[in-house]
Amino acid sequence: MADRDEDNDDDQDDDASFLVRREVVHFLEDDGLEFIVGPRVFQTCVSTSTMDDGSKLAEENDIQVIAQEVENSISNTEKLSHYNEDRSNEQGEISFNSLPREIILNIFQYFSVVELCLYVTPVCKQWYEIGHDPGLWKELDLSKVNELPSTSLCRIISQAKSLKKLNLKGRLHVSTAEVAVFSQCIPLLESLNMGFCNDVNETVIDYFMRNCPRLTSLNVEGCVTVNDKAMAPLLRGRNLQEINFSHCSVSDDSIISLASGIKQIVSINIDGISWISDR
After folding, report:
1. Higher-confidence residue: 2 or 256?
2. In this predicted model, which residue has the larger pLDDT, 119 or 191?
3. Paired sense of beta strands 242-244 and 267-269, if any
């Protein structure tokens, strides 16, 4: 792991720009490929030729606003948990916290990640620390809370550093700004379900492909805004094995290109695409 100086910015692709706030952290894979993680690193994956200056500036502002709101929210939760801990200690209470850490951790396994984030970790400092044990944050299902505000969504996901499976199925609006904020916090992600999400496009997919290099399974079923333009970022998915394109707007040529470009692919679901031929 190493810090990157601003002098290295010129090494990036011509079609990518970066927003760097304070710190950039890089991880190096065994095969030498580098990917970006860290709470203050955001890569704008849209080609400058496809966005005018106004749109680009608006997206960058959205990213910064959401990131700052998430940072403030997490900070406030930490302060609240420490305050509650201090109050409990002052009153000399003998409480649940006197149990061994292993027992509390086992109890916390019965909570969903959303419940841990919103209701458990703010209680006190000890619960905050135990509630963020990586073993509790490997799977996250947000399909039943598909109207979460962007800040809440990013706050929850950004704390799941060891997340391997994420389900966003049916989210009413997936913005590029929120994906830019949280995708770079989950580099270990292996399975992503965005089935029937609105506004999923090549930019959203590009963020995941760049920031989640271990992704093996992608479901964009029913995402009508996923079209042939999404093929270019998908070809970066060097670990992709399963893709569900059911009812998406992709063509024969795109499927052929994807199948030939990703050697390890084992399954491509094209159900419900009537114009796909047998070739």
Report:
1. 256
2. 191
3. parallel
pTM: 0.67
Q: Which of 268, 252, 257 is nearest to 219 (CA)?
A: 268
Whether the pLDDT of residue 84 is over 60: the answer is no
Question: Any idea which of 26-35, 147-156, 196-205, 240-249 has the lowest mean pLDDT?
Answer: 26-35
